[in-house]
Design a protein that fits this description.
single chain, alpha/beta, 2 domains, 4-stranded antiparallel sheet, 10 strands, globular, binds adenosine-5'-diphosphate, binds magnesium ion, ABC_transporter-like_ATP-bd, ATP-binding, P-loop_NTPase, AAA+_ATPase
Length: 263
């Protein structure tokens, strides 16, 4: 089977340092793949590289069998490769729903106010937004402003915004950062459910507990390099991972690592 995403030797260099150093990573259709690593390991850089937000100095990327290494970011998104941003940027004076509309049709941003109030949006877009809001459980909050939401709810708007584009593969950059344990577990369930909708998922987090619980397969990044990969069970047993992340609690499956926010 051709993977939906196949990154080969992805290398990104910032100021002479390889933020990504020959990263090989592939995701099969219908798979839930995680990427973990400490702050500064190069996780966001990898998403930037895959989505075309930063150039590669070496390597190649295939999406759905096509070489997208030099494709413009908006074309990648249009073909179904959609990301969230770690630094969530919502429009504070637009409702939750309007924040999703802007993401669906950025070219119509200038005519937004009129369009929003006249509700002249094509039914297909309205449907996608309804679906995305429902997926993350924000339907009842659609008319609220971001400032009236909790941190966790605002993070969900970011996820919904990506889902409204109806991705084939969604790349989530620390969607759980700053969530409490219950919110994190809920989010994990929501994300897992996306597989049933035909959406493959790539989840970045530095919370090993979350990622081990929800992913089919994961990669561990350290100083720009993949230092381990495998199923959650294999990662739990990996000596390098245990030494770096898991400590003694790994042996009995107890994992307690998630702390604080990444950047
Ligand atoms: N746009 C950029 N310009 C220069 N250096 C960057 C840029 N983005 C990231 N870096 C550097 O690349 C390394 C990896 O960063 P990042 O990908 O954000 O790590 P992570 O997401 O794992 O925390 C860090 O040393 C960071 O300072
Ligand atoms: Mg990051």
């Amino acid at each position: 089977m051709t993977p939906i995403l196949d990154a080969q030797g992805v290398t990104v260099t910032y100021g002479g340092v390889n933020a990504n150093d020959h990263v090989d990573l592939s995701i099969d259709e219908g798979q839930f793949v995680g990427l973990i690593g400490a702050n500064g390991a190069g996780k966001t850089t990898f998403v930037d590289a895959i989505t075309g937000f930063t150039p590669l100095s070496d390597g190649a990327i295939q999406f759905d069998g096509n070489d997208i290494t030099r494709m413009e970011p908006h074309k990648r998104a249009k073909s179904g490769l959609v990301r969230t941003f770690q630094q969530l940027e919502l429009f504070d004076d637009l409702s939750v729903r309007a924040n999703l509309l802007v993401a669906c049709e950025p070219s119509k941003l200038l005519s937004m106010p009129r369009d929003i109030f006249r509700r002249t949006w094509p039914a297909e877009i309205e449907d996608r937004i309804d679906w995305a809001l429902d997926k993350v459980g924000l339907t009842d909050l659609a008319t609220m402003l971001p400032e009236d939401l909790s941190h966790g709810q605002r993070k969900l708007v970011g996820v919904a915004r990506a889902l409204a584009a109806r991705p084939r593969l969604v790349l989530l950059d620390e969607p759980a950062a700053g969530l409490d344990a219950t919110e994190s577990a809920d989010l994990a369930g929501t994300l897992r459910g996306l597989l049933d909708d035909g959406i493959s998922v790539f989840l970045i987090d530095h919370d090993m507990g979350l990622v081990l619980a929800v992913c089919d397969y994961l990669y561990v990044l350290d100083f720009g390099r993949i230092v381990a990969k495998g199923t959650p069970a294999e990662i739990r047993r990996n000596p390098a991972v245990i030494a770096a992340y898991l400590g003694d609690s790994a042996a009995d499956g107890g994992v307690d690592l998630g702390e604080g926010e990444g950047h």
